[in-house]
Request: fold
Amino acid sequence: MSRRGVLLLALSLACIASPGWAQSLSSPPVTQAIKAEDTPISRWLMRLHDAARQQTYVGTFVVTAGDTMSSSRIWHVCDGQQQMERVEALTGVARTTFRRNNQVVTFLPERRLVISETRESFGLFPNLLNRADSSIARFYGLKVLGRERVAGLVSDVVQLVPVDTLRFGYRVWTERETGVVLKLQTLDATQGVLEQAAFSELQLGEPVSMARLAALMDNTEGFKVLKPELVKTTAAQEGWLFNGQVAGFQSMACQKRVSAAQSGASANTLQWVFSDGLASVSLFIENFDAARHRDMVPHESLAIGATHMLTRRLGSWWITAVGEVPSTTLAIFVQGLERNK
Reply:
């Protein structure tokens, strides 16, 4: 799948529940509507997180990024023990993605291929946090804008305003009674819309059969199953350190992706994830391959909507930074990465 296809698939999954549900099952759902501008941002974020975990729904989700638009059909259910969803792409390459907690299975029918993998939840927006993170309030302000109707449902509209130019802002529409995210816009420094993701129609409380979804997810007959291996590690263990400073962004995880379908020096790719609690940046580090990277220009910045990408060659290594942040922020990450062994 092309990088653009991967990014749009990730965006189409944006409003689906976080796999970190098990850490707060005892917390009751928060369904009160936002009533005052002084609502703590952490409380508001947790309301969205709980709504995503606890609601059952079926809907059509549309993502617009730059001049590209994609849509998906989503079925989501939770029985108190596990989360499940099915996301069927309605545009672009035919694909259906199932998620059961942190297990993700993607069917590519035209290639008769299934990709099965385990994905950790890094607590990234808009899948949101598994706990309230008070540090977010240092870098974003919460502004209540009013009410609007989205997909026929009354929603509260708020804006997350960044305190600096290192991150983008967000405008978010949430269903008034349940808190489910109906629409999300990512904003640049001039309040221009870089990217929009929204339900064009949504049926809350729609009965969804978890058993039916599980049966479809587990039926891989006639497909080749590829299981990329993700190995947890640390940047220090792999010989890397970050000497740059990007206020609010902390290291969240580091892992190596190993695929049985790959061979040679490029088989292992290291992914180092940073986040300020809402925005995220991934540094992908691999061996430089002249044949694969000859058409790529170091320090070239590319963008699809709010997602930016920047590359750099560092000796025998090739570094790709991807994140929902301004290109100037990515440049700090790329330039601050150093090899220490």
